[in-house]
User: What shape does this take?
Amino acid sequence: MTIRPASDRSLHVVFGDRITPEAYASVTHLTHRLEGAREVLNLHPAYTSVLIDFDPRRYTHERVEALVRACLATPGPPDPAPRTVEIPVDFGGQCGPDLADVASHTGLSPEGVIERFTAVEYEVYFVGFSTCFPYLGGLPPELATPRLSAPRKHVPEGSVAIGGQQAGVYPLSSPGGWRLIGRTRLRLFDPQSVPPPLLRMGDRVRFVPEETH
Amino acid sequence: MSAIRVLSPGLQTTVQDLGRFGWTHFGISASGAADAFALRAGNLLAGNAENAAAVEMTLMGAAFEFEAATVIALTGSDFGAGLPLWTPVEMKAGQTLRCGPSQSGARCYLCVRGGLAVPKAMGSASTHVITSVGGRPLRTGDLLPIGNEAIRRPRPAAQAVPPLGDGPLRVTDGPQAENFADDLYHATYTVSEESNRMGLRLHGPAIASAAGHMLTEGAPLGAVQVPPDGQPIILFVEHQTTGGYPKPANVISADFRRLGQLRPRDRVTFERVTIEQALRVLQQQEQWLYGL
Assistant: This one.
């Protein structure tokens, strides 16, 4: 583990440079322990790291580092029970313009891709990027497909995508380089609802085919 | 409740406070005023708490009609309103305030005694423009209710406002600093037209990085990130909360106000400082604010 300043108002805690169950368990443990801590303004958990923002007028890197070490040294309350969220998806056609590319890259038929993609349960590793984007672990390895060499300028809201060995859903229309295989009408992000995010770290996700084009 | 009517909205005029905290692990950055120093000073001068909701104008100012007498303070850049900046000014009922194109930096703040009583979303009145959390940019005819949250009398005009300065932007080392040579510190960059509250895109000599594929990780406010094309992007108040591009440097907190005042085509250079130096400059800035 390394703990270093990332800026004059943040501390970066890194549990290694490879995604392992141990590193990820440390990320979730630390994130849950630090949620609501007085010293913490914001938390950015990721695959193997947690970035902690604090107010540099009130706290120092040393103080926050001591807090991190104390949290890691003591067992916390058990992680919140995961929820399972079903996400209905229209696969292929205009909703999933890259389904055919994923099929040809993986040597499967489009139906084979959908079958495997919907057969497993995914875990929300963390939520980030730009607005509630869930980074999903658990993609069957045979479905891994490289990202586009040049990102699209506009990925439509609700697009369900594969990026390398990860899966994800674009909550809002945004630029993006992942392969789009379908689209959901479920809103992952609604600015009117409080708290707005549908998915949080540790949740389980199942994709359910609604219609295939 | 009395209100301010928007007569013309300017280019991108929004309601801002100091931002919403506690949501980055859902991918929602804090947002808040692009030049928080100016917003805080304006609120303090008007007799408000420093986090009161106020109006942020960008490049081209808006016009307003005041339905009731009140006290305002304009801070940040001079948008040609014909009123002194950094000074509480009494407005009469029915009076109009017309701001025009910026005469200096990118943003001007209109702080109103009592604050703007607009609804909060997730704990803040700040407009997060890309997601519409907290509302949308103002339009003609919008009414901004004036609150009654003043906490003290308006202050005397501010003295010796710390200049923005035109020296290099000061940065501390970012998480991947060791993967970069000193390219960043020997070049002049131009702020791109594509810059916004999410990020300031810079054009200039490409920066080479020895960083290979890296795992997505958290990205703080002010991070200088370098995509494969080598053109740096400074992550700003509506920044992405995680990212996979290496970060050689991070702008210091005391220079965030300068980021908020950068305009397209402005030129920037970078200077590396230590965290201790960064915190000393921040403390000087805070001392000036505490004196208001």
Observations:
- The interface with chain A takes residues 21-28, 30, 121-122, 130-134, 172, 174-175, 198, 215-223, 240-243, 247, 250-253, 275, 278-279, 282-283, 286 of chain B (CB under 8 Å).
- The mean pLDDT of chain B is 95.
- Residues 19 and 32 of chain B are 4 Å apart (CA to CA).
